[in-house]
Design goal:
Length: 298
């Protein structure tokens, strides 16, 4: 807090009100409201880079130093969530389009990615085999144990699909020497999107350069159960079509379940398990639908 006060003093900001929400401070100064956030010191000048690529859909930075940045507070208009997510995905497609470039990659770039994902799949297969063995020994399975046992075939089939597809993906990319990169917002969720007179993406502190599908994966993990992600992806690809290997890797990642663990609360454990199982069912239907559409258009 001392560093924040020093920052405010340095920039001649004299707040009459403080309010903290998450990692953001909102302050009132002479009738105006501002947002103050801590910066990621390793992010670099992300706003300068975005401006240079003609992408200006972020709140104006009024003052900053190594620690903090100040932007105006922008009131978000209230409109249907379904429309808001479509506006968000359009803005993400524009971000990726404006910042897209190809570059030479290290010889083992895709190999390391393949080994990391393959190792994770193998670990999860062993983990869930051990878990189901443990559940089968329970005389009276708890509700979370019963829920997991009923859906274990879905988990294993998802891991099998991911493993088989990963091998196909690696055959496709292992001889490539270049890859497509974009600026990733890397923290996509509805509450990081503001619509007013313009559209804005906020919370850029995790931004980085990487392949485009990681933004889509984050958005999927955050909102897939509430929204039609198949429709979102189609809308995104109208403006920024994914390469075959990018789309394949996205499907692989969303089919890999997380490592589900029992919590102290049975209620919260059931909620966690239910969410991830629902995501796997939705993922399975989505990929089957996409594959059928692709076959019909072939």
């Amino acid at each position: 807090m001392k560093q924040l006060h020093e920052f405010l003093k340095k920039n001649n900001l004299k707040p009459t009100r403080y309010e903290k929400s998450g990692n953001v401070y909102f302050i009132d100064v002479e009738g105006n409201t501002y947002a103050i956030k801590k910066k990621n010191m390793y992010r670099g000048d992300i706003y300068g880079y975005l401006t240079a690529r003609n992408f200006n859909y972020y709140p104006e930075v009024l003052a900053q130093d190594e620690q903090y940045e100040v932007t105006p507070y922008i009131e978000d208009i209230d409109y249907p969530e379904e429309q808001k997510i479509m506006d968000l995905i359009d803005l993400v497609a524009l971000l990726h389009s404006k910042t897209s470039f190809y570059k030479e990659i290290e010889v083992d770039y895709f190999k390391k990615m393949y080994e990391d994902i393959s190792g994770n799949i193998e670990h999860l297969e062993e983990y869930y085999n051990d878990m189901i063995d443990m559940i089968e020994k329970e005389i009276y399975p708890s509700p979370p144990s019963y829920l997991l046992a009923r859906n274990i075939n879905l988990i294993f089939s998802s891991l099998y699909y991911a493993r088989e597809s990963l091998d196909t993906w690696y055959e496709l990319v292992q001889s490539k020497h270049r890859a497509r990169f974009v600026v990733l917002h890397n923290n996509l969720r509805l509450d990081h999107f503001i619509k007013n007179h313009n559209s804005y993406l906020t919370s850029w502190n995790q931004a980085r350069i990487d392949i485009p599908i990681f933004d889509l994966y984050k958005l999927y993990r955050n909102h897939a159960l509430e929204l039609d992600f198949e429709l979102l992806l189609r809308s995104y690809e109208k403006k920024y079509p994914l390469l075959e290997e990018e789309r394949m890797l996205l499907f692989i990642l969303i089919c890999i379940p997380p490592k589900l663990e029992f919590e102290e609360s049975i209620f919260s454990t059931c909620n966690q398990f239910t969410r991830e199982i629902d995501l796997l069912y939705k993922c399975s239907k989505w990929i089957n639908s996409y594959s059928k559409t692709k076959e019909q258009n072939a």
